[in-house]
């Protein structure tokens, strides 16, 4: 037993004696973050929130979201805005028609899909216009990010020349933003009116505004067939260390009308490394080649690449060609494929989807369909994950009963989402004798032990504490999550943020918290067994022992756990 563990075992025993046991919460509390029709803090009298989009939640509990404003003087040119409570209370930070960091005349025209990191910094791709120019202008785009002190900087702008390009940047996509403040993006290039799509991939991992060119079109696709050149690069993904993964198309420039476009997948931790490619040649007998790589890859904190692919060759057929793979140490390893036995069902996977959830530790979750004897349209799909035991297991299956509801079963299941600790959230259609016509969709999430909790449901009445219509009935629920891009809606402590639309077409941003992280074993009390459970997770490197969370296991995780234990469960 090391000295750190010994110290905290003694300290924790004293805390247990002093604090005693504390019951953990058995329900999912909801908090109202913002409601449409209510006053917009700090703006002119009569200005209200009209509608919401892109809610974000970082690991320290700050929220951010996009708002359309309404009221006197509000019009299309200035109704979009970004808000956050990172300074302690909800406040506007950016708004359409504000000056962008190019001078007073260059204004923001649109601010969609902001990213928000754990330090509270924002990043976004924004439309721009010149307030001193003509009424009608070309739509310009700029890529912007804040530093750790929330100062905003322009990283790139359409019409500018970026390092390694001879023409002008012509298009900037929505990009990932990590906790180190780095972004990575692809860009098109315009020369004499001719636009080359997906011309280059950049990263700012070399410094705040130091754009590093990682790849560009027209260069050899090293490691693939002789003569192939890269012709199109997609939007990349990145991890917290600035490792970047991206896909690209490649062609032989000597062939006037190519028969095949070769798809490639790359990893760049300082130099480009080929992960996989779709060899158009017929595989030799007994061998397979990748045949499709048409989904964005995912990166773990240590640089492993997880990706969906299909294969071709005499050993594969449509029943077993698709699957999830992991690249590490120069080798691709199959994680799961169509035709494999589906744990917990007695059936086989019929389809492994291109879309899957992934954590910084490489844990995965996905919704898949089933085939086999006895499978019907009422039970032919489910969600599988390796988040809780390290091995792939069934989380929930279509046709399962929904715990806590009478005569209500799970119907069609959405793609799942995972937080840093491996908790899973998903929406599901509901069916059964207990399902009313206006209550056919539910929003669910697991606690840290894998138990599924209902968070909200169509037809629920939510108390909003507003002067007008203080209780409203839910019509729609919207939730997405991608911590890897800075667009997180699901924190490691079980908090999540989501949007609802009510039957009167008003809307709100809501926050919930699923489970009590300090109740490690999920038995409803806080005691020495929770410390022992945490200690075990810490020792084996399980994500549930990373309480900070930063993909490192150190004394700060012990301190964070101790603080949450003393605070007790809500």
How is this structure best described in words?
The protein is mainly beta. The protein has a domain at 1-24 and 516-570. It has 3 helices and 39 strands. Strands 25, 26, 27, 28, 29 and 30 form a 6-stranded antiparallel sheet that branches. Strands 1-39-38-37-36 form a 5-stranded antiparallel sheet, with no helix packed on it. Strands 6, 7, 8, 9 and 10 form a 5-stranded antiparallel sheet that branches. β25 (341-342) and β26 form a beta hairpin. It is globular. 45% of the residues are buried.
Question: How much is the average pLDDT?
Answer: 92
Q: Report the end-to-end length measured between terminal Cα atoms.
A: 33 Å
Beta strand count = 39
| Integer-rounded radius of gyration | 25 Å
Q: Which blocks of ≥5 consecutive residues have pLDDT under 50?
A: 13-26
Q: Which structural class matches the secondary elements?
A: mainly beta
Describe the secondary-structure layout.
Blueprint: H1 3-19, E1 30-35, E2 48-57, E3 63-70, E4 80-84, E5 91-95, E6 106-110, E7 115-116, E8 122-130, E9 140-146, E10 152-157, E11 168-171, E12 184-191, E13 194-203, E14 212-216, E15 229-233, E16 237-238, E17 244-251, E18 262-268, E19 272-277, E20 289-292, E21 298-299, E22 305-312, E23 322-328, E24 331-337, E25 341-342, E26 347-351, E27 357-358, E28 364-371, E29 381-385, E30 393-397, E31 409-413, E32 417-418, E33 424-431, E34 441-446, E35 452-457, E36 461-463, E37 471-478, E38 495-502, E39 507-513, H2 528-540, H3 555-567
Antiparallel strand pairs: 1-39, 2-3, 3-4, 4-5, 6-8, 7-8, 8-9, 9-10, 11-12, 12-13, 13-14, 15-17, 16-17, 17-18, 18-19, 20-22, 21-22, 22-23, 23-24, 25-26, 26-28, 27-28, 28-29, 29-30, 31-33, 32-33, 33-34, 34-35, 36-37, 37-38, 38-39
Helix pairs in contact: 1-3
